[in-house]
C-alpha cells in the first residue's frame, strides 16, 4: 500500500486513504504477484510500503506467509526482503507491543513473527539521515537514528540480514562543488 500515516516532505510515494492514486493490495493480489514473479524467474521479492494506519498486524504476516507458500509450492528459493526499520516500528505500534521503555522487545516480537511467516531480510530504507537536527527538518514524525539502529541490531540476532540505504543531496546547504 502507498497509504501512509506520515507526510514526509521528500516523499512522492505516499497518499492518504481516498486520495487519487492511493492503493491497497489484498493478500491474494500479493500472492498472485509472487506467482508471476516466480514464473518470471525472480529470486527475490523486495517489499516496502507506507505506514498504513488501518491495516492490522496480521495482514503483514499473512502477506509474507502467502508469498512463502507460493514459493514453496513452486519449489522456488524466492527470498523475501521486506519492511524498512520505519515499517517494523510502525508494525510494533499497530500490534500494540511497542513500549518506549523497552523498544527492542516490541521490535523483536514483530521480527520473530515476520520471520516465522517467511521473511528473509530487511531492506535499508528509512536511514536517510542520522543527524537528528537535519532529520527532524526533513522527516518529521519518522523514527530517529537510535530507533532505526535498534531494529538493525535486533534483526541480525534473529538471523535476518539487513542493509542501510542513505539518501543524499536532499537537504544540503553547502554550495555545489566547482
Q: Care to describe what's here?
A:
This protein is mainly α. The chain is built from 6 helices and 2 strands, in the order αβαβαααα. Strands 1-2 form a two-stranded parallel ribbon. Helix 2 links the parallel strand 1 and strand 2. Helix 3 packs across helix 4. It is globular, with a radius of gyration of 17 Å. The relative contact order is 0.14. The mean pLDDT is 89.
- Note the total helix count: 6
Q: Gyration radius, to the nearest Å?
A: 17 Å
Q: Please count the beta strands (DSSP E, at least 2 residues each).
A: 2
Please report which band the strand proportion falls in: under 5%, 5-15%, 15-25%, 25-35%, 35-45% or over 45%. under 5%
Q: Low-confidence parts, pLDDT < 50 over ≥5 residues?
A: none
Shape: globular
User: Spatial order of the strands in the main sheet?
Assistant: 1-2
Secondary-structure content class: mainly alpha
Helices and strands in order, then pairings?
Elements: H1 27-39, E1 44-47, H2 57-73, E2 79-82, H3 85-94, H4 103-117, H5 132-138, H6 145-157
Parallel strand pairs: 1-2
Helix pairs in contact: 1-2, 2-4, 3-4, 3-6, 4-6
Characteristic terms for this protein:
single chain, 178 residues, mainly alpha, two-stranded parallel sheet, 6 helices, 2 strands, 42% helix, 4% strand, globular
Précis, in short:
The protein is mainly α.
Amino acid at each position: 500500500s502507498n497509504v501512509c500515516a506520515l507526510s514526509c516532505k521528500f516523499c512522492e510515494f505516499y497518499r492518504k486513504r481516498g486520495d487519487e492514486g492511493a492503493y491497497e493490495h489484498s493478500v491474494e493480489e500479493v500472492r498472485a504477484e509472487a506467482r508471476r514473479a516466480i514464473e518470471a524467474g525472480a529470486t527475490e521479492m523486495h517489499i516496502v510500503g507506507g505506514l498504513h494506519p488501518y491495516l492490522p498486524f496480521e495482514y503483514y504476516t499473512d502477506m509474507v506467509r502467502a508469498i512463502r507458500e507460493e514459493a514453496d509450492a513452486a519449489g522456488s528459493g524466492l527470498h523475501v526482503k521486506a519492511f524498512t526499520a520505519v515499517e517494523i516500528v510502525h508494525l510494533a505500534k499497530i500490534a500494540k507491543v511497542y513500549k518506549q521503555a523497552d523498544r527492542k522487545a516490541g521490535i523483536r516480537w514483530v521480527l520473530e513473527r515476520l520471520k516465522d511467516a517467511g521473511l528473509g531480510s530487511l531492506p535499508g530504507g528509512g536511514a536517510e539521515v542520522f543527524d537528528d537536527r537535519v532529520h527532524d527538518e526533513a522527516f518529521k514524525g519518522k523514527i530517529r537514528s537510535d530507533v532505526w539502529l535498534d531494529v538493525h541490531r535486533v534483526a541480525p540476532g534473529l538471523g535476518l540480514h539487513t542493509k542501510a540505504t542513505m539518501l543524499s543531496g536532499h537537504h544540503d546547504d553547502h554550495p555545489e562543488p566547482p
